[in-house]
Design goal:
Layout: H1 3-28, H2 57-67, H3 74-86, H4 96-100, H5 112-120, E1 128-130, E2 143-148, H6 154-161, E3 171-177, H7 190-200, E4 203-206, H8 215-229, E5 235-240, E6 243-245, H9 247-255, E7 263-265, E8 267-268, E9 295-296, E10 300-304, H10 308-317, H11 324-334, E11 340-341, E12 345-346, H12 358-362, E13 366-368, H13 372-382
Parallel strand pairs: 2-3, 2-5, 3-4, 7-11, 12-13
Antiparallel strand pairs: 1-4, 5-10, 6-13, 7-10, 8-9
Helix pairs in contact: 2-3, 2-11, 6-13, 8-10, 8-11
This protein binds 2-acetamido-2-deoxy-beta-D-glucopyranose (NAG) (2 copies).
Protein name: Hexosyltransferase
InterPro entries: Glyco_trans_31
GO molecular function: protein N-acetylglucosaminyltransferase activity
Length: 389
């Protein structure tokens, strides 16, 4: 081979190699467009002996009987007593003495909201005061956004309507409210909420006091409504009105999922009750003993609409637990549906330096918490085709 030809060959080979490298760089560069293929949810394979979820009721009750310690704490006793009544215990019935003494030794030291929860927690039928004007389509929506909101949070709801919760193809938003008519300490805003409901047709309100320890009740009432009026929803996002949801990205991810039941979000695994009396989440030893099941943070999680019915049946049979996302985790676990973590759900927010960054938000699915003006700004920026990340 002449020197000349050798040089030509080398030049051609180098050019080819450069092109290949460039191509690979464009494909894989973190500076290019973000990967359009949604990240798969980290799958937690079920043990091979477990039947396909949701499990038959007796199986769910058995799981609960084995999962919740038979301790002398109020809720543990309530649950096991309930399981005995339902025939879901494992045969060794709770001792009569334990079941009979439903008192709580340190009751006087319970924070007032927890006392109110214990006193009123058993009641689960409250009148529906306001409901959406339009029914759900028979085989939809693809995604039902069910947003827990306090009656007075008008600006939060309006920000959701004008941003990530706006009606779109396959998306329907409903807001879940307690009673707007005040109770001595809070003003009566029922006229305003009724007006809002007429104007937007997306409000569900029930006649119970909207309080943190009534969120489990709100969830139960929502399950009842959704099972009757929105049973065709493919997926449900149950979340707060102060989160930012990247709805297009979430839709893309959900569309790529297989047919099995889904329960996914920011998963807390191996959590224990908060035992610090000053905390909003305080649960005394005498109320609940044992660890929590793996659960998805209540700021926002997503689940299959096919689970609405089984959840309603199961949750309706159990004594409600004051912390709604823990209670939900327990129910999903009993139905045999594992909580699947996804790093795009950030219910504890992201690094402070990224909190105003549209690029950081474009990569997420849900983040807690954002004020209404931040939500509107982020929504505009994240969807801006000019946005360079
Ligand atoms: C039934 O419950 C008892 C009391 O908690 C426990 O000791 C036992 O291991 C359980 N048996 C089964 C089969 O789960
Ligand atoms: C929940 O609502 C009921 C009905 O309004 C009320 O009696 C109860 O005190 C509320 N629970 C809490 C923990 O505030």
């Amino acid at each position: 081979m002449s020197r000349m030809r050798y040089h030509k060959c080398l030049t051609v080979a180098l050019a080819l190699a450069t092109l290949l490298c460039l191509d690979a760089y464009i494909r894989w560069s973190p500076l290019g467009e973000p990967d359009p293929v949604p990240l798969p949810l980290a799958t937690t394979p079920a043990p091979p002996t477990t039947p396909a979820p949701p499990l038959p009721l007796h199986h769910s009750l058995q799981i609960l009987a084995n999962m919740v310690p038979r301790a002398d704490a109020y809720w543990n006793r309530q649950l096991h007593q309930r399981l005995e009544e339902l025939g879901g215990g494992n045969g060794t019935s709770a001792s009569a003495g334990t079941a009979a003494s439903l008192g709580v030794p340190d009751w006087a030291a319970y924070p007032e909201p927890l006392q109110r929860f214990v006193s009123h927690g058993a009641r689960r039928h409250y009148p529906l005061l306001l409901e959406p004007s339009r029914p759900c389509p028979p085989d939809g929506p693809f995604l039902l956004l069910a947003i827990k909101s306090a009656p007075g949070a008008f600006a939060e709801r309006q920000a959701v309507r004008q941003s990530w919760g706006q009606a779109g193809a396959g998306v329907r938003t409903v807001f879940l409210l307690g009673a707007p008519d005040g109770d001595g300490d809070t003003p009566d805003i029922s006229g305003l909420v009724a007006w809002e409901s007429r104007a937007h047709g997306d409000v569900l309100a029930w006649g119970f006091q909207d309080a943190f320890f009534n969120l489990t009740l709100k969830g139960l009432l929502f399950l009842g409504w959704a099972g009757a009026h929105c049973p065709g929803a493919r997926f449900v996002l149950l979340g707060d009105d102060d989160v930012f949801v990247n709805t297009p990205r979430l839709l893309q991810l959900l569309a790529g999922l297989g047919p099995g039941p889904v329960y996914a979000g920011h998963v807390m695994a191996g959590a224990w009750p908060v035992r610090a009396p000053g905390s909003k989440y305080y649960v005394p030893e005498s109320f609940y003993a044992g660890p929590y099941p793996a659960y998805a943070g209540g700021g926002g999680y997503v689940f299959s609409g096919a689970l609405l019915g089984p959840l309603q049946v199961l949750a309706g049979l159990l004594p409600p637990f004051p912390i709604d996302d823990v209670f939900a985790g327990l129910c999903f676990r009993a139905l045999g549906v594992a909580a699947r973590p996804h790093p795009g759900f950030r219910t504890f927010d992201i690094a402070p330096s990224d909190r105003a960054s549209p690029c950081a938000h474009r990569a997420l699915l849900l983040v807690h918490r954002r004020q209404p003006p931040e939500t509107l700004r982020l929504w505009r920026q994240v969807r801006d085709p000019q946005l360079q990340c």
